[in-house]
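WARN retry 2 of 3 for item q-0093 after timeout on previous attempt; input resubmitted unchanged.
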Amino acid sequence: MTVVFQRLLAVLAVGCLLGGAAFGQTCPSGPAPKIQYSCTFLNVSGYPPTCSLANPVSFSLTDAVTNGPYTLQSCETGVRWVFSDTHLTGQTVQRTFPSADDWAVHAFIDNTTGTTDVLLPGVLVANGYAWESLPNGNTVLESAGNVTVNVHTTYAPVHINYETQGPADPRVPPVSGTLTFAAGETDKTFSIPIVNDNKFNGNYNFDVFIWGEDNGVLPGHDTTLTVTVQDDESLPAIAWSAPSYSVSENVGTAALTVVRGNGDLSVTSSVNYAVYDPSLTVVGSGTLHFAPNETSKQISVSIPNDNLWQADRTWYAKLSNPANAGFANGVSQLDTQLQVVEDDPMPAISVGDISVAEGNSGVREVDVPVTLTAPYPCLLFVDFTVGGTATEGSDYDPVAQTTINIPAGATHAVFPIFVRGDTTAEPDETVTLTIHSLRADGACFFGPDRPVPVIANATGTLTILNDDSDDSPGITRVSPDTGATGGTTPVAIDGWNFSSDCRVRFGGADSPNVTFVSPTSLLAVTPAHIAGTADVEVTCGASQVMLPAAFTFVQPARSRAVRH
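OK item q-0093 returned
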């Protein structure tokens, strides 16, 4: 009989006994008394005071002010004690309860004008308590085979029912039964089988109940336990087959392999993927679907081949949102890189040669060609040094800018030289342009490496051709320019318009031996001459040219005699 039902019966009984008399009228004066009870208490740790069902319980009224025995006042005529199944009279009564429960007790004090109802909400009466526990904890692996439940009672003999409840799951078949405790027995166990299906299903929770205790045993604190069956199979792990990938630019299509393993492969799984080109533009995306026991899938990536050199490129790919699968270390996405290795040669740069007639006046632009064997993907800066036999500022305008730019994708550029014309007869002259360094635009490459074209021909020559008709000889250089006063020093004389009949004089003295080498070169032997500088004269036919103070005669040092 439940406590609620007992109290309902008590209220009905009170109504019948009173015949509709009013409650709570002012009589007697002062606060209403309290109900006090005494009994033989059970010795059960952790539970509220509980009276032994085997012994009577004594009830009396206590003065609310003094806490001593309550004395009926002059207007009060008697006390009626009402229980859910019976009633007694008197200021002090004893009651032997028929069953274990939490009993409500009413004391009705009659007086000349009505009745005072004094309520004791509940008196626990039992022979003992029973509860259950899980000796190995509330979590069990699916592979454990079973879970053991222990039921403990503080009183026997007693019968206790048990059963499992929870969502249908083939791993835990429903279990129910009854445990019979003989006198003196306090603990019994029962097992719940756990079926290991060797598949990943996730964790499963179910409840274990004990109920229906008889012979005055009440349910204890733990009469419902939740058991978690932990699935010891795992979902498959999805991963890239390699930390990174590398292909040649001419491969056409690159294959990125995604693998699945280390778990229950009988399930279907899926994972999303996306592929990005070097500019981080998505060039491919989708979902890979793994059938049961399938362990690998491939993602095809189309690699464009432009047949032009450019730096190695890095593509990117990622996996995300695995379903019925997971990634190692619990990460939310897996990234990899695809390195596309350039297979075209690096362009080569060359500076070309060009010849141009000098002209007699004005300034003309002459473009020295600079070429690449193939387009280069970046803006290229080419730094030059300028040299040659021509005189800057006389034969051509001063060069203020020695760097030219070759736009990305271009294969041709020029270095302009502005040649000045004149009417002076002189030998052909040259302007040389030599590549000093190459630099790629810094915005073109990521990272510190900026490869530049190879240099195939570093120097180009602009030849300024003499177009004046004067046949007179000229001298540009004398080498060496120093010799002994005794003569016999061979001297090379460079110039123009030399002929086989040319004569050479040093400080007015004829050279004893002159050899015609070419129209631009003579070889002469010095005559004896006093120490000092001397002019060098060349006479060819009727024409003569002189290079002042071009040679110096030096007196040899005298040696000292050694005495013996």
